[in-house]
Amino acid sequence: MEKVTIATVAERAGVSRQTVSNVINTPEVVRAETRERVREAITSLGYRVNQAARQMRTGRSRLIAVRIEPGSDGINGSVLDRFLHGLTDAATLAGYRVMLYTAADDDHEIATYDDLLTAHDLDGFVLTSTHHGDPRTSWLAARDVPFVTFGRPWGAPDTHSWVDVDNAAGTAAATRHLIEAGHRRIGFLGWPAGSGVGDSRRTGWESTMTDAGLTLSAVAAVDGVDAGADAAARFDSAITAVVCASDSLALGALRARPDCAVIGFDDTAVAAAIGLTSVSQPLTEAAARCMDMLTELLDGRAPATPTQLLLPPSLVVRPPRRR
């Protein structure tokens, strides 16, 4: 098989060799459309960067780390799995490898950082599942360890670069869709107060209902199908539609209130299989942008002010399957 080179990639993508090099090493200087075309060519041709040569030139390991989230109900866990897949693809295109680790809680994760930094020549971290009072970012920042987060620093100063999805915009779109379909009693099934993501998803529903002059009715449950069913059963009988903070809760709502129109969040494979309308997060784009921000930090090209990027989700409307 003929060796794939930068010239091969450039010919396939219809660009110069310098442009291919820029996409690999300094992607932010290349237009998004061109960058995507080059990345597709790299993937389809199976081009591999010479890592040994690059490590000798830069003095870096080209290794980053990210946590694997603990399994839950087998539905919502797939969301971060898709993010990890996208991050691994983006890291490979940028010439990095991804190390995965597990941690039960924040303290365990911080202890794991210490172990990983001692045992491995890590270049940086991508953090997920940010939350109020998150101690992980300050621990890394205090030690000058490069990192970015998928998730904003809820309630804390924007002292680091992050990518997040506009959760409120997602539930607002879901609520508008139901209003346009003629529903006026639309409930919200969410998580207990205090979750940054959960509170943001409730805000999108609440503000849209308030703007339309409609009555608010919300219940909360720990994430899960059974918990969602128990909570949805507490809705007033006048409720005709429900916006949910997750697909797991939506499945529970469908079980308890089969008479209602239900919209989930995260657009999991289960939602697609049963014909559930759901809000989809741009996880592949989020992962690629996290990787772009991290490489800017590692290459010393990051702007003086940390970058904060809020990506819009999209509503995937599906006609419900007949029972």
Q: What is the highest CATH level, the class of the domain at 167-281?
A: Alpha Beta
- Annotation field: number of helices: 13
Strand order of the largest sheet: 2-1-3-4-5-11
How many distinct beta strands? 12
Salient structural properties:
single chain, 323 residues, alpha/beta, 434 Repressor (Amino-terminal Domain), Rossmann fold, six-stranded parallel beta sheet, six-stranded mixed beta sheet, globular
Description:
By secondary structure, the chain is of the alpha/beta class. Among the domains are: 1-48, Orthogonal Bundle (434 Repressor (Amino-terminal Domain)), CATH 1.10.260; 167-281, Response regulator (Rossmann fold, 3-Layer(aba) Sandwich), CATH 3.40.50. The chain contains 13 helices and twelve strands. The strands form two sheets. Strands 2-1-3-4-5-11 form a six-stranded parallel sheet, sandwiched between helices. The protein has a six-stranded mixed sheet with strand order 7-6-8-9-10-12, sandwiched between helices. Helix 1 crosses helix 3 (32-45), helix 8 (167-180) packs parallel to helix 9 (196-211) and helix 10 packs across helix 11 (247-256). The chain starts with 5 loop residues before the first helix and ends in a 7-residue tail after the last strand. The relative contact order is 0.12.
